[in-house]
């Protein structure tokens, strides 16, 4: 059975303006690979309602699950919950269970809940909450879409809350070999080797270091013994 | 006149498996912002022909220009040129001017062109070449799509070759203020300030450091004097 598929949607002007460098994609990609879920696509869109709604609807229809990051805080540019509700065609309002979590949190820290903070309790109808052990304000899951915060520590904690609820497939295994030759010399033999092992994926990722060209060749698949066999052949083709 | 819009398409399994962390998006985002081009969306897709063709066609119809990175090397998993040709419905083959660049390069370095290296001279009909001063194998522009390499040094050099050919708008200016309070305290006053300055964008980017909550508030716009005025008001609202 093929592995389940997934997409990620990163929401936020700050990535597209070059102000901030996203790190949540790289984190999620590694976690999903370990969990046997194929991350097939990622998108970054700005804080624009039309763009967010369109991306959510395209991605949730194309993939088994969708993970979003960003736009669920208390400020006026945090519009993700409203956009997700619009994409699903359901109402969104402050929900009692989410409000109770926030009230208890602010009571403990000696501050008060206000209108802005209450925005973080706006949850689309029919969603279930995602636990946020870091800063309490919850994420939520509706249909096949998991809506999470953009702050990396919070995003990572929410991913840890969601992943055990998802059914994964066989984890994708990989091995890599660093070959200090130009890709032009590697490409022919690698193509022939890939044809011999059609059950494995072989990728070549070139780099340049201190003026020399090299490539990391990565072999991926679900069967460790087959990867071992292909890797032995590869190493034999390119002795150091 | 509104600024021209753009999208980026990152092509490569290695980003989606979590093996590699993309850095080209962050670089391009900064360059486009300085050039007055609004980067509205970015996507990452795997080395799958169907996914690449669909993404190119969706993005080139939605935005003024599209920048791709990855998949134009000599190995069997480098399929970007063929996918771009398919998206545009034009033939693709080894082209004499691109072949001549490669032959001269390999003659200089004392190695020979081979079948794999010749793949890098496959250029869709009607495209113009993008200069690659780092490793010679060219990128290309077809219609509103700029096709570039994934290796960061090469990608960055190609962006430098392409940008002067594009008409930009007014550069987006920005200033930011670091406020050591939770976003829940910042949100209300910031929303009111944003309503007073409808010509500016105000965004709040929360962080957590050493257990304390804070946010960087960023004000963006095209008129530096207006940004100064709003920033002065913002600083007055949140004295240290």
Automatic annotation (TrEMBL), chains A, B:
Start and end residues of each MoaB/Mog domain: 7-170
InterPro entries: CinA, FLAD1_M, MoaB/Mog-like_dom_sf, MoaB/Mog_dom
Cross-referenced Pfam families: FLAD1_M (PF24102), MoCF_biosynth (PF00994)
PANTHER family: NICOTINAMIDE-NUCLEOTIDE AMIDOHYDROLASE PNCC, NMN AMIDOHYDROLASE-LIKE PROTEIN YFAY
Protein's name according to its UniProt entry: Molybdenum cofactor synthesis domain-containing protein
Organism: Allosediminivita pacifica
Taxonomy of the source species: Bacteria, Pseudomonadati, Pseudomonadota, Alphaproteobacteria, Rhodobacterales
